[in-house]
User: Fold these one by one.
Assistant:
Number 1:
Amino acid sequence: MSTDSALQDGRELLDAVARRRNFAIISHPDAGKTTLTEKLLLYGGAIQQAGAVKARGEQRKVTSDWMELEKQRGISITSTVLQFDYTGNTINLLDTPGHQDFSEDTYRTLAAADNAVMLEDAAKGLEPQTRKLFEVCRMRDIPIFTFINKMDRPGREPLALLDEIESELELTPWAVNWPIGSGEQFRGVIDRRSHEVILFSRAERGRQSEERHLNLDNPELKELVEAELLEQAVEEMELLDAAGAELDLELVHAGELTPVFFGSAMTNFGVRPFLNAFLEMAQKPVARQSQDGPVDPLRPDFSGFVFKLQANMDPRHRDRVAFVRVCSGRFEKDMTVRHARTGKAIRLSRPQKLFGQDREVVEDAFPGDVIGLNNPGMFSIGDTLYTGTKVEYEGIPCFSPEIFSWLRNPNPSAFKNFRKGVNELREEGAVQILYDNDESKRDPILAAVGQLQLEVVQHRLQNEYGVETRLEPLGYQVARWVTGGWPSLEKVGRIFNCKTVRDAWNRPVLLFKNDWNLNQLHEEHPDLELNAVAPVVSGVEPISL
């Protein structure tokens, strides 16, 4: 490659990275996450009309919830990727499951995110699932932007909501805008930086809302907003100014300060101001940690990692798709890459740009983007793909499941499809698979965080593979991996009040009925080290059913 060509490529890469923003939305169920996602797509021009989650009649189904079970139940249980352009920027929105039974899918998606939007219900404040996901963001030093939703309904005082974030999460909040009224009296927001008032009128369902912008000292405001509501909002803003906190982007990017926005996704209040401010403040694609240290996104050679696998996104084609987060360099269609775990060279001939269930062939992609690759069984979650000097990104760990059931196949003639379905669903991380130490017991053990995960596996085996199955609970609630593997377990000898099983990488896992049994084992064998998080595996193929 000539010097001029290399310089041109470098400039293109620099410009592409500067224009990209990548984020995931985290929230408790029913905080309005899927609705906010739809409205962001609406304002980004990616869709013409937003759909409500629980669609009725002719109302549109939401773009991000494509799986049949999601449509039936009105919940999000898979992660999707939605890319769209807005004001010259390319936005990659990683939509995560809202249901807490699918939090492990969310953990994996956060591994691919550069920023997170924490969505709160104004009436409920911080909720358990939000706290749990916040801790994952903190572990990864992900910048957090807070959107306090449902301001058009009765809710808690805005100052109390900010105080809760600061006291419970030890995260400094900085209100970028401030609400004028709430519930039926919610009139809009005041931008604290420009002192501009943004008034909203209720839009026709699913359409962009009308916004009116006025300066805070504009006399016309008195005719549009009740005096007591405006005075209260201004007084509360003065209290915030007196508190002395300042908006510091370095602290935002370090995950220590959260910009806070108020609005209502359902009625479109505050969505556009949030999106505009987010693009201004959010972190661009950053260096990712590899086994040899951080990898700069401006590194000329391509690299990326698989953070999600999904089987049967298009049931007509029985396909499997690997979601790859681009970390460095430029990805190009038909390029040949190296698979870090196996060392094999792979030609990527049909890369896809993803938008929920819709896909189109992509010619190129840059750091921060997510591409879909057809996956005929060669990729696992956490795999690294690269060109040039070898790169291997840190793996994505499995978290401890809490529900365990035998998965029975009552129809022996359907075993081939049963085996295929179980193996493909394990690959994509829909559920963890364990095996009994007694090899005569061939049925797999499903290990999940929540009961709904097991129901989804059964539903998908029935609908995608034509296999009817039966679940038999094991009666255990706690799983621990044995540090040091089988040799460490053999040194201890016989142990009681737990069941020993194998994971997909043939590692010993101990199942306990409760924490009391786990603590009892600790007391009897203090030298036996156990881990609640499965160690990351590289270079080893998992066991298939």
Number 2:
Amino acid sequence: MIIFNQEKSTFHLKTAKTSYIMKIFDSGHLFHLYWGNSLNTNNLDYSIPRQNWYKELEKNYDTNEFQLEFYPQEFPGYGATDLRSPIIELEFADGSSTTDFKYVKHKIYSGKHKLDGLPATYTENDSEAQTLEITLSDTIKNIDAILSFTVFDNYNAITRSVKLINKSNHNIKIQRILSASLDFKESNFEILHLSGAWARECHIERMPLRKGTQSIESRRGASSHSQNPFIALVKPDVTENYGEVYAMSLVYSGNFLANIEVDMYYSCRMQIGINPFDFTWLLKPNSTFQTPEAVLVYSNDGITGMSHTYQNLYAKRLIRGNWRDKARPILINNWEATYFDFDEVKIKKIAQEASNFGIELFVLDDGWFGQRNSDDCSLGDWFVNENKLHGGLKKLVDDINSMGLKFGLWFEPEMICPVSELYKKHPDWCLHVKGRKRSTARHQLVLDLSRKDVCEYIIDSVSTILSNANIEYVKWDMNRNMNEIGSDLLAPENQREVAHRYILGLYYILEKITQKFPNILFESCASGGGRFDPGMLYYMPQTWTSDNTDAIERLKIQYGTSIVYPNIAMGCHVSAVPNHQVSRITPFSTRGIAAMCGNFGYELDLTKLNNQEKEQAKAQIKFYKMIRNLIQFGDFYRLQSPFNSNEVAWSFVAKDKSEAIVSFFRVLAQPNHPQVTIRAVGLEKNSIYQDERTGLTYGGDELMSVGINIPDDIFQGAIYDSLSNKVLFAGMTNNSIKGDYSSFIWHFIKIK
């Protein structure tokens, strides 16, 4: 609901649990008054700060003592009387940069419009949300900024973005334009964000706010492994289930900036948007620029409350298409089983074993096209290598379909190898700067998606493959970041637009292909989680969470990813040991339980499993099919963090509280340690739940207040298959690489 109080000149944006209030000040500036728990009042004028060592504003903006720096703003400009970090910075034809945007008009309407060329949250009917568009103008330079706010009532989220319109007769250079800026009157917060690297994505970072500027950003051309486009301010006493959280998430897949500034008066400003670093945009007369969408979430129920808001909104009003509400198939991917060393005979042997196990989808990874027998050639040559796949791709697909399996295929369409047919024909199609070295990574260059001809080539070549065989899943990979960012077709004054134009080109490609093949399940990948962001989820409903398939490392990666993203968006696989990334040996049962945190699958050679492992795999698959809807569509609770404990636990609870999963992991063996108890969260306290494995019953209040005791045998070095309650291995080991990792999983069903 959006309420405009004309007498007070206030906008009150209300969700079911929150209020966000703005005011058109006497000067014409748009001020921020409040964001937090739902309020009934529309009069918060008294909350506007006054600095008594300056003369108060008395309906006279020309008063020399009026300083915007002392006031909380929604759209702070640059060069006037606010010296803090601006949301916008422009360069005009006369070389000046000063802006002063003031209120002109507004409109409120039901529903939500699409953003031009950009992914964004959506509504299925106009009653779900209301949108407020406020037009601000710098009348001296004749430029408008339309601020769009959409209120999702039942999802308790507010989205905002900016459209800039050049109404002048001169070119304007955009140096900086962020999507959201928010001022707080205090700075007693801690910053929460997700940081990492390749194979170590989305580790949770939390640190006190201090005077000055603290920021996270990507300058890599993608949202990146190193930082996720999300930031939150949390009160120091915030826990998973208690306290206030203010969060911003950016629906964008390229370079971003999330910035927090604490000024000399201990107030703070929080911002997120396209990274201004190495960015300008030439805005011609009568043209527009649209920023990506920022999604704002307030929670008074701790970090979990924030997470559930993002998870529910992104699962239902960001992810689109036929697969949004469908259970995702259990898959087998051949990458770690074969790498490039395969032919159709080896592939079909693995597929047949997968079929015997009850797996539903076979995915053929890298190496099926061009002359691709290693990673040093052929990206861009999207034709089947029939020297490896005798009889062609369609025959292989048909053969695997006849085994009762769906078929999926790996692509890396955004890249080109210097050793390829495509590069011979079009050496100018990659990002490059004339006269500079073309730096390769993984023996590849990045195609220039700012070019329409390159985009159309990708659409045509990928569509040809997808049209000629019954392919029902695509893994869309991207294995390097950008260097020498330049384009042959753009003028010198447009070269710093390339990184953003690339992302717009990518979105154009993804929109065309996903709409052309609506029944295909697309999974995004960027060397794992290098582009796990809301922008990609709009086109592809799941993401390969990390190239690191080690079960113990995945505890942190999956735990951190759940801070913002729904579990149905996470790809999680069981792989071989010693693990190919960290050489760790982890029990098969632990690998299985760790992978039951999202879309479950395997990434190993099933034909090489021993009999015990085969039986375990079959039990895991059978069990996952039983709990699949709970995992993929239930509420996720983080019970014990891997970042500060040797024991890790999480839980899934059905929306109707009818069943729950609790998973426990012990990271390192320790002698003589106390009984460990895990308390469930999110159950109905007056209901009775039955342990599906043992038949024992517990009250919901018991499970949440008293908790569950971890079986003693785990702490004696026993490795359980908790699905069958059998000890599979016993005995301690001193080998630090092998370790002794234990896990357990409970399935509780409400019986009354």
